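Kindly inspect this one:
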Amino acid sequence: MKLVTAILRPHRVDDVRTALGTYGVHGMTISQVTGFGTELWRTQTYRGRTFHDESVSVARIECVVADADVEDVLRVILRSTESTESGAGKIWVLPVETVARVRTGERGLDAL
């Protein structure tokens, strides 16, 4: 099993959720987080004053999938978030040792 984590612009969340649901991934965690990437800050103007915003509001989507589905899930996320703009997001994949469903005690792929 793998944990797929995507950091995306908030307005892309519905597109990703719909696309993953169509593919068959129905369980995911979606969080609002802040952070920054290679661009350390954005310059903004508010009421005539310029300031640097050091963090940006982004969405974090996490889902655990079977090893065989990882490439397809990556493709689904990338297609639903296509952008040429800087700061469009990142996706990473980590191994998951085990998963357990709290309600039933099921483990592994059965818990997904």
The helical segments are 13-23, 70-80. The two ends are 10 Å apart (CA to CA). Residues 13-23 form the longest helix (11 residues). Strands lie at 2-8, 29-35, 42-46, 49-53, 56-65, 89-95.
